[in-house]
Amino acid sequence: MRRSAQIKGIAIAILLTIVLCISYAAWHEDRRGLLTVSFLNIGQGDSIFIDAPSGRQVLIDGGPNSGILRELSKVMPWYDRSIDVVIPTHPDADHVSGLIDVLDRFKISTVVHSSVQGDTSTAQALVDAMKQEGAREITARRGQVIDLGSTGSPQAGRPHAYLEVLSPDRLAPHVDTNDGCVVTRLVYGKTSFMLSCDAPQTIENYLVSLDGNALHSDVLKAGHHGSKTSSSPSFLGFVNPEYGVYSRGCNNRYGHPAPETVARFAQFGIPTLDTCTDGTVTFVSDGVSVKRR
């Protein structure tokens, strides 16, 4: 009789655990109409995780090493082993090395990549990993839109979230990797995020000539980790963000962010956050306004 009671108690405990796990998953999957964007603290490199209101997820770049897996575990539930879209903006190691581990550990549906051909062992390893994963591959071109869905119809007041590709505007396999990196703008309702990879000022100013005021965004990821070769005055003026974010490692050998860049952000009155000093920087949008979490 005592053994029967023990078995019954164990069974109830297991059932309660299952119910709690299901409840936790259901609660976590309800984004309550919020878009979350996290600039991950992965050292000297770039990695941005987007969690759309629909539940679709995007990872832009993966940093310089397997540390990306640790950071993803902080922004994704433990049971989630898939990512809808991965975007290696260009084949430089500080952006894509970590994606090799991501492709190995997660199920990836779509990879949107630059046409720039890297000539390093890391770039080739990423190409091999993408082939092995078997995800749908898309070469990024200006004008493409990546639909991230919504939690309801526009008539119900739930706007769609989407990523628009701003650059490159042509196939550019043999240009400098930074010139050919994938610049995207994330839009949700009235809010937006400018994600400018390592694009130099020549590309930024070209986008100004094409898009002008349409570049305005609430948040700007400072190009090239805050290098002096990015964040031109014209680009900063037209993007006119509420926040700037430096994605970089502490005490990096490049001196990022450059004093010139810091001065330009200050000149435009743009407050900045820094993954070195602030850790992972996360923003939340309800489609009307953006707040830091």
TrEMBL record:
Pfam families to which the protein is assigned, alphabetical: Lactamase_B (PF00753)
Coiled-coil annotated residue ranges, if any: none
Membrane spanning stretches: none
Domain annotation Metallo-beta-lactamase: ranges: 43-247
Leader sequence segment: none
Highest taxon of the lineage: Bacteria
InterPro entries with a match to the protein in the record: ComA-like_MBL, Competence_DNA_uptake, Metallo-B-lactamas, RibonucZ/Hydroxyglut_hydro
PANTHER family: DNA INTERNALIZATION/COMPETENCE PROTEIN COMEC/REC2, RECOMBINATION PROTEIN 2
The name this protein goes by in its record: Metallo-beta-lactamase domain-containing protein
